[in-house]
Amino acid sequence: MLPQEFIRLKRDGRPLPKAAIAEFVQGMASGSVTEGQVAAFGMAVFLNGMSRDEAVALTLAMRDSGEVLAWSLPGPVVDKHSTGGVGDNVSLMLAPIVAACGAYVPMISGRGLGHTGGTLDKMDSIPGYVSQPDNVRFRKVVREVGCAIIGQTGDLAPADKRFYAIRDVTGTVESIPLITASILSKKLAAGLGALVLDVKSGNGAFMAKPRDASALAKSLVEVANGAGLPTTALVTDMNQPLASAAGNAVEVTNAVDFLTGRLRDRRLEEVTLALAAEMLVSTGLARSQKEGLANARQALESGAAAERFGRMVHALGGPSDFLAKSAAYLPKAPVELAVEVRSSGYVRAIATRDIGLAVVALGGGRTRPQDAVDPAVGLTRLAPVGAEIRAGDPLCLVRARSETDAKAAAKAVLAAYEIGKARPQPSPVVLRQVSG
C-alpha cells in the first residue's frame, strides 16, 4: 500500500490492515517512507487513536524492524520499565536484586529528556562504564553476572528510534498507542520472558493524572500480553522525588548507599522491593508477593545484590572496587550550597517537576536530545513530604559548577516546596496493580 494511502486510512478513522502496518514500519526503518509521511501518520494516530489489534501490530512490526534477541540461559529472563520521574534510580538497585534471586535481567534503558532523569546518564557518570556495548559483550555480562544495564543499540527496533525522534518535534509524544508501541517494541526485541512496568502518576510524571497513568498502564499490559509477552504493571506515586537525590552521580551514590545499607530512602525502598517481588512472581521464582518480597529483601540484606552490582559495573568497564570506593570515582561539583528555609513547619507538598527542571538548569539534564549532561551536578538530602523543618534547616544541598548556578537552583527549590503548620497525612507510593 502506498504510504499516503496508508496515512489516509488512519486520517479518516478506518482500520489499518496488519500487513500495511508492517510495510509502513519497514519503510520507516529503511528510509523509503519520508519524514513528512512519518509525522503525518503520528498526528493521525494522535488524533484518532488505535484499536488494540492495531497497537499490537504496530508494536510487533517495530520489534521486527531490527534484531530480536534470543536467550538460552538457566533461568528466566525479565526486565522492568519506568515511565520516568525525578530521583528515580530504582533500576540501579532492582536489576542486581532480581539477578541475585536467580533471574537474568538484560535491562535496556534510556537517557533523560525534559524534567526526568535517565538511567544511562546515571551509569555514564561511572568512569569507564560502557553503557552501549556490542551484543557480544552484552550477552556475556548478562550470562555471567545476571544483569546488565545498557542503552538501546542501533540494531534493536530502529524504526522506533526514527519514529520517536520525529514524534518528539511534532507534538505527538503523548499518544498512548504510540508510547505503548515505542516502549514495548524495544522490550520485545530484547527477548524477554516477562516484563514489569512502573507507570508513574503525579506532578513529577509525564502522566500527571491518575486516570491517564492507569489508561497507559492498561494499554501497555494489554498490548504486551497481546504480543505474547507476559506483563504486569504497578502505578506508583511521583508527587515527590523518589530518592533524596536528583542528578546523575548523586543518584549513583544514593544507589550505592541503598545497596550497601548506609542509607535507604523509605519510599524508594518500598517501590524497589514491590517491583522486585512482581518480577519474581512473574517469572515463577516466587509463588506470591509475600514470598517475592521476602526473597528480594534477603538478596538486599545479605549483600548479594550489592555484589552483583559491583560485578556488573566492572564487567562493563568500570572500576573493580567501585562499591568500596565510589566516592573517589564519581565526579563532584565544586560548589555546595544549603537551601535553608525561612520559617518552621512541615513539608506539605513538592512541585516535583520543578525539582527536575532545577537539575536540568544546573546542567544535569537535557532540553534537546543532543545536549551534553554534567554528571556531577544535582540536589542531595532532599527533604520528603511530611518532614519537620525548622527555620534555618536545609531543604536540600545544591551541587553546582558555579555560585550563580547554585543560587538559581536554590531559588527554584524554595519555590517548589510548600511549608505549612500541619503535618500532611502520609500517602501510599504503590497506588495500584494492573495485570492482564
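the 2nd protein, sequnce then structure:
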Amino acid sequence: MAEKLKGTTTVGIVCKDGVVLAADKRASLGNMVLSGNVTKVFQIDDHLALAGAGSVGDILSLVRLLRAEARLYRAKVGNEMSVRALATLTSNILHGSRFMPYFGWFLIAGYDEKPGLYSIDMAGGVTEDRFTAAGSGMEFAFAVLEDGYGEDMKLEEGIKLALKAIKIATRRDVFTGDGITLVTVTKDGYRELSKEEIGALLK
C-alpha cells in the first residue's frame, strides 16, 4: 500500500480575504507515472473545498461522500456547513474508517465568517493551519511557505506563493509534476483559475 501513497504535492494558504488550495496533476505508482492530468482539488459546496494527497480512488470516494453530506446538511439546516464543521465531519469519517482507512492526507478549506484551513491525516487527526502542505513534495513546499508567508497576506500574494511552492516541489520531487490546479475560496465562493491564468502568473 505504501506504493500508492507516493506522489502529489498539495498546498493550502489562508489569506486576509480568502484561502488558496493548489496541487500538481501527476499520479504515480512506484517509479511509474500513471497519469499527468489528475484532479486533486475539489469543490464540496459553494464556499468549501478539499485537496487530497494519496490514493486517487480513496480521495474521490471521500469527495463523493462529503458532497452528499454537505447537500444533506444544507437541506436540513437551510444554510451551508461551516469550514470547521466540514473538517470535523471529515475527521470523524476518517477516524471511523481507520481499520480500513482512506489512504490519503486531506486539506479542508473554505470561507464562512472568515477563511479557514484544516489539515487532516488518514486517522482523523485535525490541525487548523494558516498554511500547510501534504504529499511527497511537502518538504520542498513547506520551505517556500515558511519563507514567504505573512499574516496580512492578500489573496493575490497567496496565489503567487502557492504556485511557487508547487513549482519548487515539481523541480525537486520526481513524484510531483504535469501542471498545477489552483482554486480560491472567498466570500464570493469557489473559483478555479484557468490554465491560461496560471501560465501567466508562472512567467
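The radius of gyration is 16 Å. The longest strand covers residues 104-111.
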